[in-house]
Amino acid sequence: MQFTVAIDGPAAAGKGTISRALAQEFGLAHLDTGLLYRAVAVKGGDPVATAQALLPEDLARDDLRSLQAGEAASRVAAMAEVRAALTEFQRSFARREGGAVLDGRDIGTVICPQADVKLFVTASPEVRAERRWKEAGEGSYDDVLAQVRDRDARDQGRADAPLCAADDAVVLDTSTLSIAEAVAQARALVAAKLGR
Ligand code: DC
Question: Measuring from atom 11 of ligand 1, which residue has the nearest CA?
């Protein structure tokens, strides 16, 4: 069975949590595509050459999750040649037997426009900054909010594959939802599509 779930949205909206829950519930493979851009940024060198030579084990590095790595990823992700170098890996992951969930910024719009389920997971910048700030357990809320807004502007404003909802995506605003509520809504969409 091939079955693709595309989950897009801005940083800290809840994409990762929802993707992992869906993957577990429905036995789908999961790819956090942000890790590809993070790995390119953290490995360094010429970003295009690094993207072309990226290996699956690069995604397992333990230094990809920091705020700085996210910032740097957002910068290399604005380069069209970097995105092009990472496209086929994502598409072949999406086609794998048994089905897959991919989360990122352009999965429903560019990588898998034919995905079976498309979700655009979002939340207000204030709510997302508060989540990030609490996770970090240090620093100032205002700084984190400024970073969230900067990253949104860069991801939405780039010329190639900007962050936006596909016309046929279901928008899930998690600003006032608990994790359990957000996951339940996403699960219901996938279950309906699978006829379960
Ligand atoms: O989801 P994340 O925070 O790990 O993503 C880090 C950056 O990578 C994000 O700011 C923009 C970029 N990215 C992208 O352009 N396209 C994707 N499909 C995933 C991430």
Answer: 74
Measured distance CA(54)–CA(21) in Å, rounded: 27
Q: Residue with the nearest Cα to atom 15 of ligand 1?
A: 77
Task: Kindly give the distance from the C-alpha atom of residue 37 to the centroid of ligand 1, in angstroms, as a whole number.
Answer: 6
Task: Please name every residue paired with 17 in a beta bridge, in sequence order, or none if there are none.
Answer: none
Express the helix, strand and coil content of the chain in percent, nearest 5 each.
55, 10, 35
77: CA distance to ligand 1 center in Å? 7
| Mean pLDDT, the chain, integer | 96
Output the residue whose Cα is nearest ligand 1's atom 10.
74
- The answer to whether residue 196 scores a pLDDT higher than 90 is no
Domain of residue 163, CATH code? 3.40.50.300
Give me the count of residues in the chain.
196
Within 6 A (CB) of ligand 1 lie 11, 33-34, 37-38, 70, 73-74, 77, 104-106, 151, 155
pLDDT in tens, 36-86: 999 999 999 999 999 999 999 999 999 999 888 999 999 999 999 999 999
Q: How many CB atoms lie within 10 A of CB 113?
A: 14
For residue range 46-56, list pLDDT tens digits in order.
999 999 999 99
Strands 4-8 and 117-122: parallel
If one counts the domains in the chain, the total is 1
Domain of 24? 4-194
